[in-house]
Amino acid sequence: KMGWWDFWYLRINQPNEDGMMSMSDLEKADASIRQMCKGEIPLYVPGPAGFGTMLGLFDSGAIFKWRGAEPFAGDLVQTPVTDGGFAKQFIDNCAFYREGLKPWQRGLEIGMAHGYFLIGPFVSLGPLRNTPEAATVGLVAGCALIGIVSVGALLLGATIKPTLFDKKGDSPAAGWQEMINWHALGGLGGAGFAHALITVLGA
């Protein structure tokens, strides 16, 4: 036996024809769920709100496989950013991962890049940015930061002993230590070069 409250609640919440999904809509939803259970998902691209889906997403027609070989391993999830051809090629071309480089070459390239751009924020945004000493203070601050990072990386190598860049017969973390030593040298050189450009060109 149904009480009056239950009858009234069901009556006012009774779905109308507009709220019911058609058979074709149900089949599409079921196919989409089955596809996602297989580890495949359609690639949506953002667009203007109010068009496409409710969130303004448009189906690109591309499907990517997000699930790796082990279905329950979260670290194997694949995305177009982490597993796309361009992203992989870009990351593999960075000095840390590029094949054929010696540890000192990796460290020098990484250090020069970091030293070059590190002094910029200190020069442009530091407390002495409107003074003639801004470039020199930025140089000192950038060199100090390079030193702090290098000491931290050397401590990491002394404790964890990464063998990523070791040659056969080397002591553990010898390649890492060589890379960090040259990173410090390259960082100081990059910061000095940036300082010279700032002072000479007055930028």
Description:
It contains 7 helices and 2 strands; from the N terminus they run ααββααααα. It has helices spanning 4-12, 23-37, 80-83, 85-92, 103-125, 134-159, 174-201; strands at residues 40-46, 57-65. Strands 1-2 form a two-stranded antiparallel ribbon.
Briefly say what this structure is.
With 203 residues, this protein is mainly α. The protein has helices at residues 4-12, 23-37, 80-83, 85-92, 103-125, 134-159, 174-201, and strands at 40-46, 57-65.
Instruction: Characterize the biggest β-sheet.
Output: 2 strands, antiparallel
Which class do the helix and strand fractions yield? mainly alpha
Got a strand count? 2
Mean pLDDT: 88
CA(first)-CA(last) distance: 85 Å
**CA-atom Rg in angstroms:** 29 Å
Overall geometry: elongated
Output the strand order for the largest sheet. 1-2
Distinct helical segment count: 7
Order of helices and strands: HHEEHHHHH
Assess the beta-strand content as a share of residues: 5-15%
Unreliable runs, pLDDT <50, ≥5 residues? none
Helix content: 55-70%
